[in-house]
TrEMBL record:
Matching PANTHER family: BLR1237 PROTEIN (PTHR42928:SF5), TRICARBOXYLATE-BINDING PROTEIN (PTHR42928)
Keyword Signal in annotation: yes
UniProt xrefs under Pfam families: TctC
Species annotation: Acidaminobacter hydrogenoformans DSM 2784
Superkingdom of source: Bacteria
Family: Belongs to the UPF0065 (bug) family.
Key words, A-Z: Receptor, Signal
Record-given protein name: Tripartite-type tricarboxylate transporter, receptor component TctC
CDD domains: PBP2_Bug_TTT
Signal peptide, first to last residue: 1-22
InterPro entries in the cross-refs: BUG, Bug_dom1
Length: 332
């Protein structure tokens, strides 16, 4: 009998030991996995251009699925001015807690290279590239020129009379537009008229106040569909899928190829665990079918790059853009 109870006691002790070990392991596992307390409120996404422009419309593509993929809504806030420098400064100098992000374009490396912002290139971290878009030069439907050569001939016959607009000095559309006019050999014969946003430039063209606007097709969809405006040329290596009948400048004999990316940035000093969270979940959002559907409808070409690749792209572009800025006279 004693032997029987001794065996029972031993079995019971082993069971208790196993339970204790299992409990300790579970507690240890829970203790080693610290839950990320982010985000607990809406995330502000700064767009450094005016509402209604292509960059603003592209940023809004992220909003509908933000709650599902990021856990909180995205609040899109436009802070235009100085070719995107005002909004960039605001975001770069914001508290690095993941609640103030920046949605910017290829003009960001340009403004950094030109010294138009109050921060260094390394003070922003690229989290996710969302798209790549090709700029165009667009005019009113009844303009006396319908292609690049006709525009060149008209400008040479009327030097100093053609005006063109873009959203701020040093913006990507300023750089791309100047590059196109430079490629056509008429940059010194046209007059620049900067606006705060693309929508204002388009309105000025339709109102007869400006002759040409440098913009993205995402801002022109309604006007092109209605036959109110037409394209002089597309600054892409080949025709874009959204407008297969529109010729590139290259096809027309002018070497004007400059595309612009758009993407999300965070200020330097943002905790790594928050950057990782945004990196993973923005990828899920951008690569979702619903995002692609919205982007396609807008004419925004989805091109995704993760945090490491996009940051490297951004920093490389800061160096790459300097020769282009010198060529078009924006940098000495």
């Amino acid at each position: 009998m004693k032997k029987y109870f001794s065996i029972l006691f031993l079995i019971f002790a082993l069971i208790l030991t196993g339970c204790s070990t299992g409990t300790d392991n579970a507690q240890g596992s829970q203790g080693s996995e610290t839950k990320l307390d982010y985000p607990t409120k809406p995330i502000e996404l700064i767009v450094p251009y005016a509402a209604g422009g292509g960059t603003h419309l592209a940023a809004e593509l992220l909003s509908p699925d933000a709650q599902e993929y990021l856990g909180q809504p995205l609040s899109i806030v436009c802070k235009p001015g100085a070719g995107g420098a005002i909004g960039a400064n605001y975001a770069a100098m914001a508290k690095p807690d993941g609640y103030t992000l920046l949605y910017h374009t290829f003009s960001l490396p340009a403004t950094v290279a030109m010294g138009d912002v109050d921060f260094a290139a390394e003070d922003l971290i690229g989290i996710a590239q969302c798209s790549t878009v090709a700029p165009v030069l667009a005019v009113k439907a009844d303009a006396p020129y319908s292609n690049a050569q006709e525009l060149v001939d008209w400008v040479k016959a009327n030097p100093g009379k053609l005006t063109w607009s873009f959203p701020g000095i040093g913006s990507s559309l300023h750089i791309c537009g100047a590059n196109a006019f430079n490629a056509m050999g008429i940059q010194d014969l046209v007059v620049e008229v900067p606006y705060d946003g693309t929508a204002e430039g388009i309105a000025a063209v339709l109102g007869g106040h400006i002759d040409v606007v440098s913009c993205f097709t995402t801002s022109l969809a309604e006007q092109l569909k209605a036959g109110e405006m037409k394209l002089i040329g597309v600054q892409a290596p080949e025709r874009v899928a959204e407008y297969p009948d529109e010729m590139t400048f290259v096809e027309q004999g002018f070497d004007a190829v400059t595309t612009s990316w758009r993407g999300v940035f965070a200020p330097k000093g943002t905790p790594q665990e928050i950057l990782d969270y945004l990196n993973v979940n923005l990828e899920k959002l951008i690569m979702s079918d619903s995002y692609l559907e919205r982007a396609t409808t807008l004419g925004e070409g989805r091109v995704y790059k993760n945090m490491d690749d996009f940051t490297q792209q951004y920093l490389s572009d800061v160096e790459m853009v300097e020769p282009l800025l010198k060529k078009i006279g924006l940098l000495e």
